[in-house]
């Protein structure tokens, strides 16, 4: 009887490990070989960066600040927190954090929350038997006026989701950078259009 239980336990561990390996790093798993033998990056990972850095050369701090807020609100998301200050040299520095932007939810039957999480994440946390209720993204901007009168912007996105079947908790992890890329492009477009 003990041998049967031990064998069943080993089999379960083996299956569990196999599932974890399958879920693996989405970026690595999704790489596919092209006809020329080169690895092809999947659509959702084309813009992946740990953080986005942009320097705006011809604009004042308040112009970049306002354009950033407008761009966040243009995604249908609200600004959750914004703080700015001026240092001893008279240079401005600020932080803008969006609310949690809901990308998918089980409240809307047409949306597949897990597929949304996979697309906008580097790797969704593996939870055996897990059921994801929400897919959310939060934008975190740091803006800093520099001595050469440019404004440096750093953007980092963070994915999160509520898992309700096993852990009944909200989990946080790294974003694929897809939406952050297009948010930065929107900010640049706002300046280009004047």
Give an overview of the whole structure:
It is a single chain. It contains 5 helices and 9 strands; from the N terminus they run H-H-E-E-E-H-E-E-E-H-E-E-E-H. Helix content is 33%, strand content 31%. Strand 4 (79-86) and strand 5 form a beta hairpin. The protein is an alpha+beta fold and 194 residues long. The strands form 2 sheets. Strands 3, 4, 5, 6, 7, 8 and 9 form a 7-stranded antiparallel sheet that branches.
Cα radius of gyration in angstroms? 21 Å
User: Structural class, judged by helices and strands?
Assistant: alpha+beta
- Please give the number of β-strands: 9
Order of helices and strands: HHEEEHEEEHEEEH
Q: Which stretches of 5+ consecutive residues score pLDDT under 50?
A: 16-35
Overall pLDDT, averaged?
Answer: 83
What general form does the structure show? Answer: elongated
Amount of beta strand: 25-35%
Distance between the termini: 77 Å
Largest sheet: 7 strands, antiparallel
Which percent bin holds the helix content?
25-40%
Alpha plus pi helix count: 5
Question: What key attributes describe this structure?
Answer:
194 residues, alpha+beta, seven-stranded antiparallel β-sheet, 33% helix
Set out the fold topology.
Layout: H1 2-23, H2 26-30, E1 32-33, E2 39-40, E3 52-56, H3 61-74, E4 79-86, E5 92-98, E6 101-105, H4 113-120, E7 134-145, E8 151-163, E9 169-174, H5 178-192
Antiparallel strand pairs: 1-2, 3-8, 4-5, 5-7, 6-7, 7-8, 8-9
Quick synopsis:
With 194 residues, the chain is of the alpha+beta class.
């Amino acid at each position: 009887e003990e041998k049967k239980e031990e064998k069943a336990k080993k089999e379960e561990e083996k299956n569990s490990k196999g599932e974890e390996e399958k879920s693996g790093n989405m970026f690595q798993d999704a790489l596919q070989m092209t006809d020329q033998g080169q690895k092809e990056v999947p659509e959702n990972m084309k813009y992946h960066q740990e953080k986005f850095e942009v320097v705006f050369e011809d604009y004042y701090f308040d112009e970049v600040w306002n354009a950033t807020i407008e761009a966040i609100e243009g995604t249908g998301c609200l600004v959750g927190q914004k703080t700015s200050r001026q240092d001893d040299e008279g240079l401005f520095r600020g932080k803008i954090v969006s609310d949690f932007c809901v990308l998918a939810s089980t409240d809307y039957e047409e949306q597949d929350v897990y597929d949304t999480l996979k697309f906008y994440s580097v790797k969704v946390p593996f939870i055996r038997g897990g059921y994801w209720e929400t897919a959310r993204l939060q934008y975190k901007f740091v803006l800093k006026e520099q001595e050469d009168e440019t404004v440096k912007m750093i953007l980092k996105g963070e994915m999160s989701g509520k898992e309700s079947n096993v852990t009944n908790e909200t989990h946080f992890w790294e974003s694929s950078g897809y939406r952050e890329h297009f948010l930065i492009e929107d900010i640049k477009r706002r300046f280009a259009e004047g």
